[in-house]
Amino acid sequence: PAIMDGRFKLSESHAILRYLACAFPRIADHWYPADLYKRAKVESVMDWHRTTFPRGPGSYAFYSVLAPAVGLPLNTKAAARTEKNFIASLATIESVWLQKKGRFLLGSNQPSIADLSLACEIMQLEVLDEKDQERILGPFKRVQKWLDDTKNAMAPHFEEV
């Protein structure tokens, strides 16, 4: 993705989210906290996301469903490898990033840009049929609830985008 704000051009989703959160002073602090410690925690989730999910849900969806749309064959071996990796990541989200005290990542009661980014990544699974979505996400009830909470926290704009 890329944006242009006046003459300023910027690419990369996480850089764009950080820029928008800082460039517009009326953006609520929970999105990208001014407090150094809270911001560092949001940054840690975003860095984990980038290093853990590059071959995550989007790659699985590509290898298992979307490849023929660009003239490539389905790749079941790559899909299986990718699925194994991101299922482990979903387990990490449940055990590490979704703490019991809050509805959002890091135990927060309000979403951050890390919630938005990671939720959008996982939602790439929506191109799969319902049976496959349930097989993959079914064991992760806390992740499912967090996805719903994240969507609802940004309603109606989340579905619009």
TrEMBL record:
Keywords: Transferase
Keyword Transferase: yes
Pfam families: GST_C_2
Presence of keyword Transferase: yes
Gene3D superfamilies: 1.20.1050.10, Glutaredoxin
Signal sequence, start to end: none
Protein name, as recorded: Putative glutathione S-transferase theta-2
Native source organism of the sequence: Solanum nigrum
